[in-house]
């Protein structure tokens, strides 16, 4: 008997899959397609357990669907532009391209060692010119359609490093590299008009029934549709007016001051002579504050009086105009009518600056006194102090006041979205060059299509200082203006890497297509993606941008679908307990020996279960796992230990258990080999044989249902484990080799999506030459599920007194008769009167006697 040698088996099958390109697919209109995609990895260097889990989940579905006969597209590639490559360049002097492509080569070999069923012919990296050139073309088409534009906006700027920082690179307002204070600097940047699609992006969330609700909710909140009014407040002593956006026009009569964003264009012009210097100082101060923190209210709420007043258009009161740090310029109109009695933020602000209050909504039975109010009333109520609207319910008053404002010409109903246009300019080298030129005469000029691609030059040195290396690369920088022939400068910014990941899934349909970004017929065949799998951290940005791009590409007539991802699965994290030593800090698991630190012998302190991370050293290296147990065990454990959407707690015993299980299956096949290798297998069977056959078919049914659309891989694997137990429990003397063979083959087939090398190997051991996919996914025989007989418990006055075995389809009367004829039951009812017999079909008979 052969030993289970995972390494040898895995190598052999992987080589075969590679040579035969076993998972390469083409468009075939005669076959039903299934497009399965896992979020592609960033080539950071090595795969980690999160990848193993994510891609194992996807691979089960891919292989399962293939065995069911679908034409399955399951591609893999690399999200290859981005900062870490530049950081590596800065730290180690390696060129970002070299670093990236070396990482890709290594990670590709790691993925191949996991045995994932990818169509490797479709692989690409987003930093390949043949990918990003088409992204540049899409940009030009968007430019023609007015879907992209340039405007100035604020970015995080580090003066000493002369560079723009991403939000993640700003820690507590300081640069992550030099620890200097970060400023907000105004730069001209390119934007994508995602807001044009806000309504459609919102509406379609109600049709995405294959997405998890929390993700849809996050998208809806991010899009943030608010209905309300814009209202004009005339500036006292001037012809100008300040327009506010409010969702609470019912509180208009209580607006006792106005607060503007410090960036508001009227802020300086409103400042009176006495207030001018404090206003200027305040604007400068807020400019240094982080915008996201301002929005979330992390900063202390503060403001400054401008010296100006405006007129509440319904009360005709003069109200002071303030600047406030919590008002943002890029929401609504950048101006807020402040109602301290009904908005807590305004209440606190008014208290701080001694601004009068006016109550306009009163809940039933309450009488607020502004002098004694301790907080704003934000609930519903009846309108007061609001002229003709008094006495109305405040919700009704919203409608009435909105109508009134429109009639009087002092306001209008509006819809506002929290969603902002997508700023895509990054002042970085390692990204797709934005195909724009600047000419002194013609201004911003798009690069003509026939001059694409704008190739990212390789001969640069990346130091991280003094701005983008592209701005110092003369050969790249200077060119001729295609419009006037004069001198032009190239745009030196590159795209946000989220642009690449917004359409890669469409390029997988036609990765070699050379006439445009997307071969429409191929895309129409494969799209939409039937199942997308990835981390919840992408719930908003990536998934929203990808939906936006799908709609843009549709409107550019490049493809047909409205939505890219029919079903979405967000998998949980891989976690492990942390360990530390009082002296040496965090320890890798292998640095713990017999509960002690391997460096100093002190007792190791076990910590909480946390997401695996290098910084806390609670990591398992997939390579080590593969070397020790094989890829199949690694796959099996990551699928068995937890349902995909839940966090997975790593534990070594669990891995061992999976390995032992595979060995047990291996032995079951070899132990019974002689019995089942007879060609003339008979199916006729004993009772034991019938039971095993029933369990075999039940298992097929359960595993199929557990995989298909529901991802209950853990319970599917458990069911197979039980079937294996039944095989071990099956008495060979029963001599039903046909039943035994069917059970063994079923185990091997059902395990194939989970442990493909292992299953292929045993399938051939069992004498099949065609490969497991040819066998197809097993289907259950409904007749085999039916039990011939059932054992039923018999109670007398509620106490169990016996058991009877009856035909499974026996009528109630027959069951009752059998129960009353059971020997022990007869003893307990002898001499008594049977009052009632209760039959619970298929389960129980209770005889009531007295
Ligand atoms: C008056 C008012 C009274 C408001 C009241 C609220 C409560 P959503 O629902 O998120 O759209 N607002 C408007 N523009 C703003 C900006 N640029 N920065 C900060 N706050 C702004 O929020 C709309 C409300 O947010 C608006 O309604 C406005 O305050 C404030 F008792 O107007 B409200
Ligand atoms: Zn020009």
If you had to describe this structure to a student in words, what would you say it looks like?
The protein is α+β, with helices and mostly antiparallel strands and 850 residues long. The protein has 6 domains: 30-127 and 140-147 and 193-222 and 419-426 and 496-573, HUPs (Rossmann fold, 3-Layer(aba) Sandwich), CATH 3.40.50; 148-192, no CATH class; 225-417, Isoleucyl-tRNA Synthetase, domain 2, CATH 3.90.740; 574-611, no CATH class; 648-785, Isoleucyl-tRNA Synthetase, Domain 1 (Orthogonal Bundle); 789-849, Ubiquitin-like (UB roll) (Roll), CATH 3.10.20.590. 36% of the residues lie in helices and 20% in strands. It has a 4-stranded parallel β-sheet with strand order 2-1-24-25, with helices on one face. Helix 1 crosses helix 24 (756-765), helix 2 packs across helix 18 (631-640) and helix 21 (687-707) runs antiparallel to helix 22 (713-729). The radius of gyration is 35 Å and the shape is globular. 41% of the residues are buried. The mean pLDDT is 92. Bound molecules: ligand ANZ and zinc ion. GO terms for molecular function: aminoacyl-tRNA deacylase activity; ATP binding; leucine-tRNA ligase activity. It holds the Pfam family tRNA-synt_1. Belongs to the class-I aminoacyl-tRNA synthetase family.
Question: What would the keywords be for this entry?
Answer:
850 residues; four-stranded antiparallel sheet; alpha+beta; Rossmann fold; four-stranded parallel sheet; 6 domains; binds zinc ion; Isoleucyl-tRNA Synthetase, domain 2; single chain; binds ligand ANZ
């Amino acid at each position: 008997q052969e030993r289970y040698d995972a390494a040898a088996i895995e190598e052999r099958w992987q080589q075969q899959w590679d040579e035969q390109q076993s998972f390469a697919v083409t468009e075939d209109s005669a076959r039903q397609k299934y497009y399965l995609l896992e979020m592609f990895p960033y080539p950071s260097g090595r795969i980690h357990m999160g990848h193993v889990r994510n891609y194992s989940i996807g691979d089960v579905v891919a292989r399962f669907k293939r065995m069911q006969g679908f034409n399955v597209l399951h591609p893999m590639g690399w999200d290859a532009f981005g900062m870490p490559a530049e950081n590596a360049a800065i730290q180690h002097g390696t060129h970002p391209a070299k670093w990236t492509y070396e990482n890709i080569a290594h990670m590709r070999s790691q993925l191949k060692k996991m045995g994932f069923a990818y169509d490797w012919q479709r692989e690409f990296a987003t930093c390949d010119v043949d990918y990003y050139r088409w992204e540049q073309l899409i940009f030009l088409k968007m430019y023609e359609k007015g879907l992209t534009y340039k405007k100035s906006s604020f970015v995080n700027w580090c003066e000493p490093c002369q560079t723009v920082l991403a939000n993640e690179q700003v820690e507590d307002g300081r640069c992550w590299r030099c620890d200097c204070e970060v400023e907000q600097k105004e730069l001209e940047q390119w934007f994508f008009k995602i807001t044009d699609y806000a309504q459609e992006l919102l509406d379609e969330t109600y049709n995405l029934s294959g997405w998890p609700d929390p993700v849809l909710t996050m998208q809806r909140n991010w899009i943030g549709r608010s209905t309300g009014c814009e209202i004009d407040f005339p500036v006292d002593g001037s012809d100008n007016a300040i327009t506010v956006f409010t969702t609470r026009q019912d509180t208009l009569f209580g607006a006792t001051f106005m607060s503007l964003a410090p960036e508001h264009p009227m802020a300086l012009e409103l400042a009176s002579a006495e207030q001018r210097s404090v206003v200027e100082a305040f604007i400068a101060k807020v400019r240094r504050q982080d915008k996201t923190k301002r929005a979330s209210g992390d900063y202390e709420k503060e403001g400054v009086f401008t010296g100006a007043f405006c007129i509440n258009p319904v009360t005709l009161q003069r109200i002071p105009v303030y600047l406030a740090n919590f008002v943002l310029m890029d929401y609504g109109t950048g101006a807020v009518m402040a109602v301290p009695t009904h908005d807590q933020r305004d209440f606190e602000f008014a208290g701080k600056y001694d601004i009068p209050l006016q109550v306009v909504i009163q809940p039933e039975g309450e009488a607020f006194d502004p002098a004694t109010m301790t907080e704003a009333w934000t609930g519903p109520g009846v309108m007061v102090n609001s002229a003709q609207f008094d006495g109305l319910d405040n919700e009704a008053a919203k409608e009435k006041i909105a109508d009134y404002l429109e009639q009087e010409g002092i306001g209008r109903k509006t819809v506002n979205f929290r969603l902002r246009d997508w700023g895509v300019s990054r002042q970085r080298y390692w990204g797709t060059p934005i195909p724009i030129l600047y000419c002194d005469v013609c201004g911003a000029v798009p690069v003509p299509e026939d001059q694409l691609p704008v190739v990212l030059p390789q001969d640069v040195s990346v130091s991280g200082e003094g701005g983008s290396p592209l701005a110092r690369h003369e050969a790249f920088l200077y060119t001729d203006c295609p419009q006037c022939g004069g001198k032009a400068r190239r745009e030196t910014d590159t795209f946000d890497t989220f642009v690449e990941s917004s359409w890669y899934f469409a390029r997988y349909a036609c990765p070699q297509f050379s006439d445009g970004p997307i071969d429409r017929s191929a895309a129409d065949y494969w799209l939409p993606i039937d199942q997308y799998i990835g981390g919840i951290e992408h719930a908003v940005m990536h998934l929203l941008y990808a939906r936006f791009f799908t709609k843009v590409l549709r409107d550019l007539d490049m493809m047909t679908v409205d939505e890219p991802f029919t079903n979405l699965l967000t998998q949980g994290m891989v976690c492990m307990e942390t360990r530390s030593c009082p002296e040496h800090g965090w320890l890798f698991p292998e640095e713990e020996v017999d509960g002690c630190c391997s460096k100093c012998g002190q007792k190791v302190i076990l910590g909480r279960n946390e997401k695996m991370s290098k910084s806390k050293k609670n990591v398992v290296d997939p390579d080590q796992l593969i070397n020790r147990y094989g890829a199949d065990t690694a796959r099996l454990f990551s699928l068995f230990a937890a349902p995909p959407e839940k966090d997975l707690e790593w534990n070594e015993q669990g891995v061992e258990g999976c390995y032992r299980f595979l060995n047990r299956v291996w032995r079951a096949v070899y132990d019974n080999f002689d019995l089942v290798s007879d060609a003339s297998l008979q199916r006729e069977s004993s009772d034991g044989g019938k039971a095993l056959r029933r369990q075999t078919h039940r298992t097929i049914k359960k595993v199929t249902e557990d995989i298909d659309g529901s991802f209950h891989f853990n319970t599917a694997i458990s069911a197979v484990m039980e079937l294996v137990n039944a095989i071990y429990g099956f008495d060979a003397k029963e001599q039903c080799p046909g039943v035994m063979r069917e059970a063994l083959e079923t185990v091997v087939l059902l395990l194939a999506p989970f442990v493909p090398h292992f299953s292929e190997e045993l399938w051939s051991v069992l004498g099949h030459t065609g490969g497991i996919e040819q066998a197809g996914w097993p289907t259950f025989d409904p007749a085999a599920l039916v039990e011939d007989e059932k054992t039923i418990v018999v109670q007398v006055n509620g106490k169990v007194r016996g058991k009877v075995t009856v035909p499974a389809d026996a009528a109630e009367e027959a069951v009752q008769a059998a129960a009353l004829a059971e020997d022990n039951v007869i003893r307990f009812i002898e001499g008594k009167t049977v009052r009632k017999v209760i039959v619970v079909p298929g389960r129980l008979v209770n005889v009531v006697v007295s």
